[in-house]
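Protocol step 4 of 5: obtain the predicted structure for the target chain.
Materials: sequence only (see below). No template structures provided, no constraints applied. The aim of this step is simply to have a reference model before the mutagenesis design in step 5. Sequence pasted as it appears in the construct record:
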Amino acid sequence: IAVLPFVNKSGDGEQEYFSDGITEAILTDLSRVSALFVVARNTAFTFRGKTVEAVQVARELNVKYVLVGRIRKAGTRVRITTQLVDGATGGHIWPHRYDRAFGDIFALQDEISQATVAALKVRLLPQERKAIESRSTQNPEAYELYLHARHYLQQRGARNLDIALRFCHQALEVDPNYSRAWASVALCEALLYLRGRSGDSGLAAAEKALSLDPTLAEAHAAKGRALAELGRYEEALAAHEASLRLNPDSFDVRYYFGRTCHQFGRYEAAIEHLERAAQLLETDYSPLGLVSQSYEMLGRKDEATRTVRRALALIESEIAERPDNVHAIVQGAWALAYLGERKRAQEWARRAMAIDPDDPLDHYNLGCSLARM
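Step 4 output (structure tokens):
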């Protein structure tokens, strides 16, 4: 089965975070069912925003079924329309429309997942049903704030990290024991610590997340990054290894493990983890930037150049969608400088400084770009 990104029909582009979050939650739930093969998130999300026929998707992905949906969120109400489609014929196995209060969002997610399993006549084992119904929080308000935080965290850059951190703290005001929110606090703090914009490395928040849920792979990944920023090499690698054992197919696990390996000069390992991260989230340009630098440090210039071109294509797509993403503009200036496009690199550098002139890491990366030119 392939779960395509649910379409945001709220008439508000700012609600994309919500439709994406619900899609990912249902996709994760179905992935826990041993009798199902579920197409990975990174592959399914390549169809985001595209008009495609379910039969075409099924043929491309070699699946029997496709789950599609639409979401409309207005105030305290949520309407989700789902269709399970036979990939061979295009016929609807079942269409469902759910119209609920936002407070019922978790029960709604469970219902969609379990209805899909039932329609496919797949047996749901007791432990799988329990896993589907388990959540890091049972509070819908905290959950929505967490989805906001993840949306900004994935956009990177100091300004977005500050926003993500505020959303995390709001989520924790609602539910102080929300382990995923604590893990995201740890990541935000570690990345801001690197920029000199936080006095906290994120280690305490990561430990708090792990005290609430020792099996949360993203919390171990956050702990690894926090320890890396503190220069505690062996402990950082041990935390990353723990995260990898728990969930090797998590973007956070692979990306932050790769960052730490790159930081400590383990370039071959960095390439392995970062390339996997790039597969898991195909729209994210950050992993490929570090891959290219790792290739360059290993003296593999041709591979470095090819990877820079791949990164630049993703950066240009990101900037087309979010023209004020300073992090993407800075990374793009570096890529252009690497490729010898001096004029564009200088234009992008000026643009970045006009939008946000106060981030020391941006100044550092632009300095690297200028030095290369």
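Step 4 remarks: Strands lie at 2-3, 7-8, 65-74, 77-86, 92-101. The chain has a mean pLDDT of 89.
Proceed to step 5.
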